[in-house]
Amino acid sequence: MPAIMPLVSLSKPSRWAISPYTMSLPMREAGSTNKLKFDNYFLVYHGGWVAAMVLDHDIRTRTANRYSLNDAMRMLYQHYPRNKKLYRSEDIVTVLKATSGLDYQLFFKRYIDGMEPLPVAGHFDLGKALWDFEFNPAKHYQHANLYQVLGITIVKADQVSPPA
Known about the structure:
The protein is mostly helical. The protein is 51% helix and 0% strand.
């Protein structure tokens, strides 16, 4: 098995690769056969997870937290039961538009079907978010969407009961 090569930088757009030819392979194509999926495991699975995080953050930010990727996933699960009907990327784009009012055709064209690296750094300043989380509670609001996407709940000191 080839060595895993991290191609990640928090300051630049990035993607993960496990195969020397991954950088010339769109994310969707990397998962098109069992062999390609195995050879490009990190691009397919971790790339999909990162793409979902970027989408969720973008939806939450652009809709002032009125909508999230959760709304789209709920609709997909309702209309595409896994054991009966699979959905395509086009279906995801349609559902994203229906649930959030936002058009993600270009996102899928560039980052899922195309060769452009996901714009991770444009959505997440992880270093600043973690610093503010630990040392600057007054700035938590600046990272509220990121914290929510990552499942981090901010609890204020006055909301915590002292130990018994």
